[in-house]
Amino acid sequence: MSPVEIIKTAQKMGLRAIAITDHDTVDGSVEALRHQHSCDLEILPGIEISASFDPGTMHILGYLIRLDDVALTQTLKVLQKSRADRNLQILKRLQGLGIDISCDEVLGVSGGGQIGRPHIAQVLVNKRVVQSIDQAFNKFLAKGRHAYVARYRLPPFEAIQAILLAGGVPVLAHPFTLNVRAEGEMDRLLADLKQAGLKGLEVYCSGYGPDRTAMYKRLAHRHGLLVTGGTDYHGTIKPGVHIGIGRGNLRIPYRLVEELKQSASQVVSDLDKGLL
Ligand SMILES: [Zn+2]
Fold first, then answer.
1. Cα(178) to centroid of ligand 1, in Å?
2. Which pTM does this prediction carry?
3. Which of 181, 194, 201, 208 could form a disulfide with 220 if both were Cys (CB 3.0 to 4.6 A apart)?
């Protein structure tokens, strides 16, 4: 969806604020902020950066970053190039497996934004090579599958620092995808990430039950991390997940946005004082 479509949907849902946190690009945030004045919705600019982490998937959100930060722009360019190279390699592998798929077809479903594996998966669904996005990942695109290609990712410390230096608040996204299930292990990981400058943990996520949410809340409090929430809305790529309510029961209080903004002011003040 385009930023304007997202804003319209959020307004229909009666939301007070949304964050736009695309992977490896701030174009959507820039575009959304252009419409801020004409709507009564508060828009938080942001980014989502994939960090290297072996047990599972680590995404670091950067809320309220300065969108024109020079160093961050450079970092994102490197990530975008590795993403583009990797997309081509994935397509070559799929073609090698006898699947007729072209770059233009993937561009066609991306809507002009960043292109990633979900878009390739969408083309595979459209062409009836597979029946669902999940199946496309399980059969071809997930780590270890036939068309998987690794790409360059920032080490977690560098991702956190890049966000802080751009005046943003680094938050560990959807912690369940880390594949770190035991609370003690999560404890050690969060201690390290906090040391690296992490400020928050995404406690409220689409599909997390009360037990899982309670554990992440406990961990956030123990490590003095902000509690945040997000639906991880991805349009038709994640069917069943809706803006603002996730899988139907997600409610994220505005208070968390206020805490996020306070944290961002603290980051900017620390930067000014040369503390970061
Ligand atoms: Zn993510």
1. 11
2. 0.91
3. 201
